[in-house]
Design a protein that fits this description.
Low-confidence stretches: none
Number of strands: 12
Distance between the termini: 44 Å
Order of helices and strands: HEEEHEHEEEHEHEHHEHEHHEH
Shape: globular
Largest sheet: 10 strands, mixed
Number of domains: 1
Length: 325
């Protein structure tokens, strides 16, 4: 074959304009959701040591942060609450005057168009750090379900746009859907952490949310990292129980799970770029080993390419800022 007739795929990669013209997947500020940690107090911005750039925020500083996110085009937030007092029954999770409930109300008063998603779990609220009610030293699945349902309803009552159960108890989507409907919140969607793995990548989050288990671990209810067929079954069950949207967590080590979920299910699909993924990039960038912006953009783009429409990421504000340059 004459060299003049060689198919040259490089032709469309020669300039930035050409590369942009043929790019198959794009990141946009609207793809990002920013997880935020809210605590009691006023004027509080407690830096999280293992997550540079992130902090525990009191409600007043939370509102400042949300204004900055809005300014760069990030449409929504995921709220985690850290109460002043924790107990074995996680009563702070459903307290109508709880930290998340008040934060949601404050956000909606100031920024009615911000998408507010609330994490529904017990680990931040229990004095033992586990995701539910303990019976004989083990998380009791069925005893935990009413707690999750009551928490979800309290979030909806406060004004949450979406409730997101992350506990991985069997049957939680069904009982939350039934409770929301019974309370009159039939239009409040459920975003299920449908495939949440028992991952070592959650380490920095435990510091941020003050939720390290006092003993044991969460492998009895979070998924084993070796399984993908089980993930599809978990998602299918949640869809049958009434989940409106689904999530895979973590994201980067589980791109194959995101792809499999996208190919099998038609529901909106999110990926959670978790604390450990964020912390690794930050640590390597601080040492000058990587280009933080390029690595972050490439990482998040891989999640979009795998099939996620939305990405929950602690890099949300930075990414949105970079995209506007």
């Amino acid at each position: 074959m004459s060299v003049n007739h060689i198919i040259r795929t490089r032709r469309t990669r020669m300039t930035p304009a050409l590369r942009e013209f043929v790019r198959e997947h794009h990141l946009q500020p609207g793809d990002m959701i920013a997880p935020l940690f809210v605590v009691e107090g006023e004027g509080v911005r407690n830096p999280i040591g293992s997550m540079p750039g992130q902090a525990q925020l009191s409600i007043d500083t939370l509102l400042i942060e949300i204004a900055e996110l809005q300014a760069v085009g990030v449409p929504g937030v995921l709220l985690f609450g850290i109460p002043a007092v924790k107990d074995a029954e996680a009563t702070g999770a459903w307290d109508e005057n709880g930290i998340v409930q008040r934060a949601v109300s404050a956000i909606k008063d100031r920024f009615p168009d911000v998408l507010v998603i609330t994490d529904v779990c017990a680990c931040e609220y229990t004095d033992h750090g586990h995701c539910g009610i303990l019976v004989d030293g083990e998380v009791d699945n069925d005893a935990t379900l009413p707690l999750l349902a009551r928490t979800a309803v309290s979030h909806a009552r406060a004004g949450a746009d979406i409730v997101a159960p992350s506990d991985m108890m069997d049957g939680r989507v069904r009982v939350i859907r039934e409770a929301l409907d019974a309370a009159g919140y039939i239009t409040t969607p459920i975003l299920s952490y449908a495939a949440k793995y028992a991952s070592a990548f959650y380490g920095p989050f435990r510091e941020a949310a003050e939720s390290t288990p006092a003993f044991g671990d969460r492998r009895s209810h979070q998924m084993d990292p070796g399984n993908i067929r089980e993930a599809m079954r978990e998602i299918e069950i949640d869809v049958q129980e009434g989940a409106d949207m689904i999530m895979v967590k973590p994201a980067l080590p589980y791109l194959d799970v995101i792809r499999a979920a996208r190919e099998r299910f038609d529901l909106p699909l999110s990926a959670y770029n978790v604390s450990g993924e964020y912390a690794m990039v930050k640590a390597a960038a601080e040492r000058g080993w990587i280009d933080e912006q390029r690595v972050t953009m490439e990482t998040l783009l891989s999640m979009k390419r795998a099939g996620a429409e939305r990405i929950f990421t602690y890099h949300a504000k930075e990414v949105a800022t970079w995209l506007q340059r």
